[in-house]
Amino acid sequence: KSIFFYGIIRGNVSIRVNVKEKISQFGDVIIEEVEKVVIHDGECFGESGLVFDCVRTASAYALNDCILFTID
Asked: Which residues make Cβ contacts (< 8 Å) with residue 67, sequence separation at least 6?
């Protein structure tokens, strides 16, 4: 299992957390997410996974073209 810390050199990233899971009429799992924060140039995310060695608690979505650096 790889855990990464990400830094944003350029771009905008939406951090979203799961608020509810439900099963569709076809048996698919549907996950509803809510945006907690948008982070920008010079900010970072993923540090809790490195510090606490825990499973991810949020998802990150690029809102535009991004340049990131990673530390594992």
From this structure: 8, 9, 10, 11
Tens of pLDDT along 11-45? 999 999 988 888 888 888 888 899 999 999 999 99
Please determine, for residue 50, whether its predicted confidence score (pLDDT) is greater than 80. no
3-class DSSP string for 10-57: ECCEEEEEEEEEEECCCCCEEEEEEEEEEECCCCEECHHHHHHCCCCC
- CA–CA separation, 17 and 35 (whole Å): 7
Alpha carbon distances (Å) from 57 to 9, 16, 27, 43: 23, 9, 24, 18
